[in-house]
Amino acid sequence: MMDKIKNKKTVLARYVACLASVTLLFVSCTNDDMQRDGTFLPYEHPLQFAVGIKGEAVTRATVDNVWGPNTITVQSIDNYDEENTSPSWSEAVTGYYAAIPALSSTTIVAGSSDYWQAIDEIKLIRAWCYGDDEFRRPLPNENNGWQIAVNQNEGNNYANSDFIYARTTATYKIYEKVMLSFYHQVAKVVVNVSSESFAPDAEITGITLEDVYIGGVFQEPALPNSGTPTLGTWTTTGNKAQINMYPLETTGNAKASYAAIVIPQVDDSPEKLITIHANVDGTAREFRYKPEKLEWKSGTTHTYNLTLSGTRQVVSFKEERYDSRY
Q1: Which of 235, 222, 209, 216 is nearest to 290 (CA)?
Q2: Taking the complete model, does pTM exceed 0.70, yes or no?
Q3: In this predicted model, what pLDDT tens digit does every residue of 244-281 receive, in sequence order?
């Protein structure tokens, strides 16, 4: 009987010793990358990102709402105090990232130059990308404004005129990447043209926007982050110009549909804003439409459904206009 008790004590002692060894090993491994004060060793936990699909909503990465850019700029403020509504980005960590084209619902952004400093750290993160996919570190500012293309019916100028921006706060979560949801900060104008009895055989050869500012300076959305808007505002710069719109596939009763990416702007008295170029019975014609006022907002599609009607040389427009997010 005594031998059985001794054997049980021996087994128990060995179990406790083994458990202590495993616990010590676990603590030792944990302390390899996290110190006793809850901070991480440098570069042990790099900051990584995911972009692309979030739930069922696209993160508005391109004009076609699919992720297309290969280059983005990311800035992060370490140990961010959420009470600070005017953070300085001058000392922020800046990284240049190459995005892997999305094969599924998520695109992983690699090559981070930043890392998590502590398990309870909060980071303020912002990111942006220019539509032409060229690496430009600064946001569109007074010294580095963004300018859209005027001939958006040529090459990739339509998509190249886009500008997208994302901002979020994040805390450390093991094995989880920070989601960056990008939103268009420019505006889109769509013009659909149909015809009633006037020139039913007219061929629409192009549509232009007249007297439009093509340059601008971007102001970020206001902080704090809780409930903060995802869209910034713009100040127009430079001169006005004519924009040749990009042809779209027609739908419904439209004879033609065109789109353009524009700098958000307000104009109380636009002159000849929309010009429809057409071929009527072998003769080149121009039909000009002047709205009472335009107000193009960031991240918004402004759609003009125009119907040509009239007799002989007199043309009137029936406008149906609506705005929507894109």
Answers
A1: 209
A2: yes
A3: 999 999 877 788 999 999 999 998 887 778 999 988 88
Residue-wise pLDDT for 199-214, tens only, equals 677 789 999 999 999 9
| Cα angle: 271, vertex 246, 51; to 5 degrees | 115
For strands 300-311 and 187-195, give the pairing: parallel
Q: Which residue has the tokens 């907002």?
A: 297
Tokens linked to 6? 């001794």
Residue 224, both tokens? 């704090």
Radius of gyration for the chain, computed over Cα atoms and rounded to the nearest angstrom:
29
Q: Residues 6 or more apart from 258 whose CB is under 8 A from it?
A: 190, 191, 206, 207, 245, 246, 247, 248
Give residues with Cβ within 8 angstroms of 173, minimum separation 6: none
The DSSP element (H or E) to which 206 belongs, if any, is: strand 203-219
Q: Spell out the long-range contacts of 265-270 with Cβ–Cβ below 8 A and sequence spacing 24 or more.
A: 265/212, 265/213, 265/216, 265/234, 265/236, 265/294, 265/296, 266/293, 266/294, 266/295, 266/296, 267/211, 267/293, 267/294, 268/293, 269/293, 270/210, 270/211, 270/294
